[in-house]
Amino acid sequence: MSRRKIAAGNWKMNTTFESGMELARNISHVSIPDDVEVILGIPFVFLKPAIDMLLHVPKVSVAAQDCSSKNKGAFTGEVSASMLSSISCPYVIIGHSERREYHKESSEILAHKVNEAFAQNLNIIFCCGEPLDVRKQGNQNSYVCDQIEKSLFHLSSEDFSRLVIAYEPIWAIGTGETASADQAQNMHAAIRSFVGQKYGSSVASTIPILYGGSVKSSNATEIFSQSDVDGGLVGGASLDADHFG
Ligand code: PEP
After folding, report:
1. Backbone torsion region of residue 14, taken as left when φ is above 0, otherwise alpha when ψ lies between -120 and 50, otherwise beta
2. How much is the pTM?
3. Atom 7 of ligand 1: nearest residue by CA position
4. Is the per-residue pLDDT at 1 higher than 70?
């Protein structure tokens, strides 16, 4: 089964307006294989200029790094899915482990965010992944499947099949430690099988599942060549156009 291949970057809270635009411009000059889509997770304030800059660049689009679980109103500092939609932002990242940890975003809150994003027709990159103690106890599969079930299994199969899932073991994010190719493949296969039990094999076999966690140019090829790994969500290394390319 051929699936979409995605190279997504997550700039997090990095770059200035000028350095961010330069980074987007440099990435837009990278030669991208026909079957690969590039998505740049850009800070809110630079989204609109980046969307305008990349408008005519094929296969490169942008993602917001989060959206509110609320529709609108007195929520100072929040950015709603409808605001993102109003600037034609195509993607939003939901459930990044840094949001879960530092902003206490529970699976229930994330389910609301998912609903808000789909109500505005945004595409979602949904992040999941286990902390180190869960991995050490060998409970990573049930932990990650539980995250997916609680935030996503209320969706119709039509909506579910629009998702991109990013498996990001927390112990590998920004630590320089990467999951081995086998660890990534095993988890991706477990996620696909779990999705298949709920939505059937045709939905499960078409969902792109990205790996994230200290991916860099030196380890990407081995991880991305695994049969259930459909690309990556890259943090630190996405801030350098050459490495990301
Ligand atoms: C991330 O934040 O999504 C990520 C994977 O970061 P890094 O590549 O820096 O580990």
Report:
1. beta
2. 0.97
3. 235
4. no
